[in-house]
UniProtKB/TrEMBL annotation:
Protein name: Acyl-CoA dehydrogenase
Required cofactor names: FAD
Gene3D superfamilies the UniProt entry points to: Acyl-CoA dehydrogenase/oxidase, N-terminal domain, Butyryl-CoA Dehydrogenase, subunit A, domain 2, Butyryl-CoA Dehydrogenase, subunit A, domain 3
Keyword Ribosomal protein: no
Keyword annotations of the record: FAD, Flavoprotein, Oxidoreductase
Every Acyl-CoA dehydrogenase/oxidase C-terminal domain range: 227-370
Domain annotation Acyl-CoA dehydrogenase/oxidase N-terminal: ranges: 6-117
Residue ranges annotated for the Acyl-CoA oxidase/dehydrogenase middle domain, each copy included: 121-215
Length: 375
């Protein structure tokens, strides 16, 4: 497979790079105030949308440009190369909506999702149903032309800033656990919705817990048929952003260069163990990059993402956590004394990467089933 850009892709990349150089907000990554950072990310979403860079691979009838997934990959890579603000998370929510929604729901929800007018979160995990999602306990009881929802969601990233939530709840308590779940499109401002930020080890409140107390949801905001929630959830997590979809490879390379600089500044490059550790970090990044390119090739050929995405997920977690651990080894006590506090925060942020979108154990189970291995 030739992974080089075609002439059209190279032209797009050059034009995009020029646009990004002028459009990226100066000092965006130095903002300490979380509210200000959220406002900046929302404005960045709208800026990208106005320039035509959001949802490029979506079908044209749903507001996209009908382009190859390669163009989304180029956007992710160039944004990572130039240290742009995070790209908006519209792909996996949008995929769930335009795959399962009614035409009326598509007209209502897709345009504001694409444009950044409305932001979304994902109400899947619960206190005792994280990776074992089918064990969720949040209920949705049909009451006339509404569902009444009660329960709790955990690790709802960005929930405190979201306008809407793609929510999973159990609508049939007597059905097998995978078959009694339905999906809903719910406003986060409905009476009975309480969202509490969770401050993680890095000191950031990037996730939240959400309580649902007698929340009434109109029947016409159920997504798909009753009991179709598990299928919708699997479609959503399959398209949920992986390492190729967040510019991780470019970010990883940039971080690796910084780690190499730390080793050089401290006179550690001549140590065999340091050189071996840096070489291993480079190899991890290359293995992940080639795996992502293979999956992108499958997408371009028309094959939707499948269970092989679990391989990339495991490689991503291993690469990120190993590199951050190497930085800690090189910095020694400095990361604890404030001299290199940013690195300590990055290290803490890397720890839950192996849990996002399903824990490493769940990913290994998926791979085992894909390989038809015995239970």
């Amino acid at each position: 497979m030739d992974y080089r850009d075609t002439p059209e892709e190279a032209e797009f990349r050059a034009s995009l790079r020029e646009w990004l150089a002028a459009a990226i907000p100066a000092g965006w990554d130095k903002i300490d105030d979380e509210e200000a950072a959220v406002r900046l990310r929302k404005e960045w979403h709208r800026t990208l949308y106005r320039a035509g860079y959001v949802g490029m691979s979506w079908p044209e009838e749903y507001g996209g440009r009908g382009l190859s997934p390669v163009y989304d990959a180029i956007l992710n890579e160039e944004c990572g190369n130039l240290n742009a603000p995070p790209l908006p998370s519209v792909g996996y929510i949008g995929r769930a909506v335009f795959t399962y929604a009614t035409e009326e729901q598509k007209r209502r929800f897709l345009p504001p999702l694409l444009s950044g007018e409305a932001s979304w979160c994902q109400g899947f995990s619960e206190p005792e149903a994280g990776s074992d999602l089918a064990s969720l306990r949040t209920t949705a009881r049909l009451d006339g032309d509404h569902y009444v929802v009660n329960g709790q969601k955990m690790w709802t990233s960005g929930g405190q800033y979201a306008d809407w939530c793609l929510l999973l709840a159990r609508t049939d308590p007597d059905a097998p656990k995978h078959k009694g779940i339905s999906a809903f499109l719910v406003s986060m401002t409905e009476p009975g919705v309480t969202c509490r930020p969770i401050v993680i080890a890095s000191g950031e409140a990037e996730t939240s817990e959400v309580f649902w107390d007698d929340v009434r949801i109109p029947v016409d905001q159920r997504l798909g048929a009753p009991g179709e929630g598990w299928r919708i959830a699997m479609t959503t997590v399959t398209y949920e952003r992986g390492p190729a979809d967040i510019g991780f490879i470019a970010n990883y390379r940039r971080t690796l260069r910084k780690v190499e600089a730390i080793a050089a500044e401290r006179g550690l490059l001549d140590r065999p163990e340091t050189r071996k550790a840096l070489a291993r970090a480079y190899v991890r990044g290359e293995v992940l990059r080639l795996n992502c390119m293979e999956q992108l090739s499958l997408r371009v050929s028309g094959r939707p993402p499948g269970p092989e995405g679990s391989v990339a997920k495991l490689l991503w977690a291993d690469a990120e956590q190993s590199l951050q651990h190497l930085a800690m080894d090189l910095l020694g006590a400095d990361e604890m004394t404030g001299v290199a506090a940013d690195w300590l925060s990055s290290y803490f942020t890397s720890r839950p990467v192996s849990v996002y979108g399903g824990s490493a154990q769940i990913q290994k189970n998926i791979i085992a089933r894909m390989l038809d291995m015995p239970r």
